[in-house]
């Protein structure tokens, strides 16, 4: 189909429309011819049935008496009727299949075997004008008073029906050709007129030198159609490009407000992440108020979660606060994280692998707030990347006196934009979340490093966090 690509759209569309009309016309013609054939078949079958039934009533007693002359006379008088002229030949045989009389005695002699005449004959229900031959052969039983007393073989001339069918086909072809030609020309002219705005848009985009120009209002179609919306959208884009220079000039003045917006987004993002687990804990307390151990466990989770939210807000909004309250990371923090991501794990039917070294976590002496933020952000991103029935894992272990977190997941590899947020320090591109960039900033403030690998269909993020100096001195 490479030859079709260079053809202009104003020609492609009429060609496609003409092809569709040819297809529709062909299907419609087939339906008309099929309906005509059904009507002709029904008519010829009804005529043959009336012929056979009439002969059966008239010839029954004569065939029983083997009255050859009366049988012949009856056949001759039947052949003189109006529709009887369609019967080219009619022969009557007794119950042994021996011919008693025929409208053409020379062709079908008396006492000959009727099977020689009815070699290609069909039953009454199988009679159809199939176009293979202008003469149809019919073989039917001759019944009298409820029993078969002989056989009737008839040849019917259907040449007029075939001529009628050929004329119908010719008229259909001529009518379709004229209609397709007229509609194709009309469609070509109409589509060319409708595509004028697109042509104008293409000209404005290809012939512009330097600053882009808007499409004049006189060339925009009236109303609110798709092409009018396209032209207005292009003009809006041109206006947006013109305004970009002004926006870039004012960008420095608005830097403080942008930073404030990022801070607010980060704060909302980090507060929203654990809320699902905390609300789950409150539902658990309401559901099991008579089980003290469940209430106590949920209350502890609420306490730690709320303290985490407090740490997040303080770490985000008040980095330089004097004598901040810092809680050291413990194994319970990872249990909280596991509970907080459990709704997402259950929703996606994930296979969760969890390995935390309590001794390494306790000995690290690392503040709990930043680590919880890092682990929760990465695990939520891993759940989203793994998708339905995927696998997600976390390993927390000691390494070089500090703590190492390994978060793994199956599914698609991280896109370039996400890697730039996690591993780079450049400006954020529009769109996407702030969680990955916040992970990088938190790890960098703790003098940590972040690594990324994708092997065998699995993504692995490694965050290495060194122990604070106070913790190292205590270990020594």
TrEMBL record:
Any one of the GO CC terms: plasma membrane
Catalytic activity: ATP + protein L-histidine = ADP + protein N-phospho-L-histidine
Every HAMP domain range: 192-246
Residues annotated as transmembrane: 168-191
Domain of life assignment: Bacteria
Keyword flag Ligase: no
Subcellular location: Membrane
Top class in the EC scheme: transferase
GO molecular function terms attached to this record: phosphorelay sensor kinase activity
Enzyme Commission numbers on file: 2.7.13.3
Pfam families noted in UniProt: HATPase_c, HisKA
Keywords of the record: Kinase, Membrane, Phosphoprotein, Transferase, Transmembrane, Transmembrane helix, Two-component regulatory system
Histidine kinase domain boundaries: 266-469
PANTHER family for this protein: SENSOR HISTIDINE KINASE TRCS, SENSOR HISTIDINE KINASE YKOH
Protein name according to UniProt: histidine kinase
